[in-house]
Amino acid sequence: MSLRLQDSLQRFVFEGAPIRGEIVRLDSTYRAVLDRRDYPPVVRDLLGEFMAAAALLAATIKFDGRLIMQVQGNGPIGLLVVECTGGGAMRAIAQWQGDVPAGSFRAMVGDGRFAMTIDPEGSRERYQGIVAIEGDSVAEALEHYFAQSEQLDTRLWLAAGPDQAAGMLLQKLPQGGHEDPDMWARAVHLGATLTRGELLALPVREILRRLYHEEDIRLFSRKPMSFRCSCSRERVEAVLRMLGPGEVDSILQEQGKIDVDCEFCGSHYAFDAVDAAGLFAALAPADIPTTRQ
């Protein structure tokens, strides 16, 4: 029997040192994203690394809501978007033009920006950090983000292939005053010996044993990961209400109906004139948006 834990994330900490870590494996979650669009191998692998990174970073934040990571640039790959909820549900998409040559991350996405958004549930305020795209890999770009926006020493190792994506994160926490001052440098140095093949194939315990067998490591219970899209007919209806009755009616007159397709999961939502009328029927006049001129 295989000891691998598929579609799961596990947290670990160095006992007596201000260092935490995460290791994630995405199997069916990753394949569910790939099944919805025919990605070229170069784009596929980049999106897989981005998904693994989002899962790792979402696990460092205690919140109910969504972590949204987005890269937008002027290169062959113009857009990468991954969402991960506090409960481990993920969705992702990439957009590209023409043939995408293999190369560095920066060459593939070009000049642009990296944005990370924390969208908590309820009335809590949304947070967003934006930095310029830097680095030759997804890992380097995210490490740059944390250095610029969060002032946290963070290291990532990411890998993706046709069927799997995986990643490991190390993050240095504020000092307590009695720790080994060289532990962070040692942990990063040993982490850098982890190969792509090992990251994709070895069980979590085996990775930690191989890297840190001389350290006192505490491994926490696994957290399941899954693919789930947050789109719904109700959310599409809310967007149409924001457009206002005038603009919705204009679309109906031009096209006869309104068709909306979710780019993340492929779900289709259709609205005819009767459906559109029902969107605004229950609203008070003061609640109906004014059509933009």
TrEMBL record:
Span of the signal peptide: none
Species of origin: Sulfurifustis variabilis
Location relative to the cell: Cytoplasm
Lineage summary: Bacteria, Pseudomonadati, Pseudomonadota, Gammaproteobacteria, Acidiferrobacterales
Disulfide bridge positions per record: C229-C231, C262-C265
Main location: cytoplasm
Gene3D superfamilies noted in UniProt: helix hairpin bin, Hsp33 domain, HSP33 redox switch-like
Protein name per its UniProtKB record: 33 kDa chaperonin
Post-translational changes noted in the entry: Under oxidizing conditions two disulfide bonds are formed involving the reactive cysteines. Under reducing conditions zinc is bound to the reactive cysteines and the protein is inactive.
Keywords of the record: Chaperone, Cytoplasm, Disulfide bond, Redox-active center, Zinc
PANTHER family the record matches: 33 KDA CHAPERONIN (PTHR30111)
Gene Ontology terms, MF aspect: protein folding chaperone; unfolded protein binding
GO BP terms in the entry: protein refolding
